Amino acid sequence: MPENVTQLLVNWRNGDESALDQLMPIIYDELHRLAKRYMSRERRNHTLQTTALVNEAYLRLVGQGQAEWQNRAHFFGVAAQVMRHVLVDHARSRQYAKRGGEAQQVTLDDNLAISHEDQIEVLALDEALNRLAALDERKGRIVELRYFGGLSVEETAEVLELSAITVKRDWLKAKAWLYRELSQR
Questions:
Q1: CA angle at residue 55 from 104 to 124, to 5 degrees?
Q2: Residue partners of 128: CB distance under 8 A and separation at least 6
Q3: Distance between start and end Cα atoms, the chain
Q4: Exposed end of the chain (fewer CB within 10 Å): N or C?
Q5: Which distant-in-sequence residues (6+ apart) come within 8 Å of 38 by Cβ?
Q6: What is the mean pLDDT of each run of 10 residues along the chain (185 residues)?
């Protein structure tokens, strides 16, 4: 299946519109799975529904039809960025920029090695991730791909053209840095 997605992405990039028709059900299902994962971290009465997140991300991704998609992992890495931006844009538009009150919250799961009890605002996570990326772009990208994109260590390594051990090492350092940053709030 990953090879099929990769070939369809390449064909679509090269102007084959029928490739998009074949690709749509495959990537839509995967995007829905990712969005469901993201939304499971959000508060229960969140105003953005999973399907709306998928649709918005899909529209933004399709708008990048001429992007240089390298493979399935690269596409879903970009999808992770897009979903992150959709969630942050939504939080900002709902005027959740201030801490506390009805702030939109996301729970960092075991993938980020922070307990389920620790909840942080999606905007605070975005700000911390931006600070991390400013200090170390690679670690910021690894967090984005692993946490927001749900990519495995191997897929992340493929997207970033790194070894899996480097991704694992940077992932551990990035998680510790984010935990410290978010704990100081």
A1: 25
A2: 178, 181, 182
A3: 43
A4: N
A5: 53, 83, 87, 106, 148
A6: 74 82 83 76 67 82 70 80 81 56 47 39 82 94 83 86 94 92 81
